[in-house]
Write a structure and sequence with these properties.
Elements (H helix, E strand, L loop, with lengths): L3 E3 L4 H5 L8 E2 L19 E5 L4 E5 L3 E13 H4 L3 E4 L2 E4 L5 E3 L1 E3 L2 E14 L5 E5 L2 E9 L2 E10 L2 E6 L4 H9 L10 E2 L3 H9 L5 E7 L2
Parallel strand pairs: 1-5, 2-15
Antiparallel strand pairs: 3-4, 3-16, 4-5, 5-10, 6-7, 7-8, 9-10, 11-12, 12-13, 13-14, 14-16
Length: about 210
């Protein structure tokens, strides 16, 4: 599964699910849907990303993503934050050491990280609707982040709301004023269904089931 990527020192932060959501909702979606208590058995298992850089794992109540890859950085970017000593870099901040491979002016590092994307709890609700699974993550009072999951023919699709087209769709569906672009929405069940039909959650990543 391990591959080599050319990357900046911020690649790890960018690849994890740490960004603010493009849109939020005032209640779990779809509205008035009884949540599931666990991920269905048919969805549970391990899935390999198309670029083979990560594995997404679904268990009873947990959805995680594990990264295992190597990436390249130029020595000049490394020495801003680390001391380079042979095949080891040493953090200037806390002295932590890390083994690397040095080829000329290139430093090859190994990333092995696990990110929790979603876990089912009293605050985080999993809803099934129209063949899709909706991951409702409670951020604060009346503020929910919602992502979409689907499984078809062994291919798992993880979808999030895009900054452009999806926000435009949501504003049109909720009939927001023409001079306002909202990013927090109060959707009825009917409006959410319309958003799905129009291709909402258009920013997608696909994973193949590992047999």
């Amino acid at each position: 599964m391990k591959k080599i990527f050319i990357a900046s020192i911020t690649i790890i932060a960018l690849m994890l699910n740490s960004c603010d959501p493009a849109a939020t909702f005032d209640k779990p979606q779809p509205d008035k849907q009884k949540p599931l208590t666990s991920f269905p058995k048919r969805t549970q298992g391990n899935y390999l990303s198309k670029d083979e850089s990560s594995i997404l794992t679904i268990s009873d109540k947990l959805l995680t993503r594990h990264f295992d890859y190597e990436y390249k950085e130029h020595k000049d970017s490394i020495i801003q934050f680390y001391k380079l000593n042979g095949d080891t870099i040493i953090s200037k901040r806390d002295g932590v050491k890390e083994k690397v491979i040095v080829v000329g002016d290139t430093v090859i590092r190994h990333a092995n990280l696990t990110d929790t994307l979603f876990y089912i709890s009293e605050d985080n609700l999993l809803n099934k609707f129209k063949g899709y699974y909706f991951l409702n993550k409670h951020l604060s009072n009346n503020t929910w982040e919602v992502n979409k999951l689907s499984l078809q023919n062994g291919v798992l699709t993880y979808g999030i709301i895009s900054e452009g087209d999806d926000i435009k769709r949501l504003n049109e569906i909720t009939e927001s004023s023409a001079d306002t672009t909202s990013k927090h929405f109060d959707l009825t069940r009917k409006q959410f269904k319309k958003f799905i039909k129009q291709g909402g959650f258009s920013e997608e990543e696909k994973f193949d089931r590992i047999r």
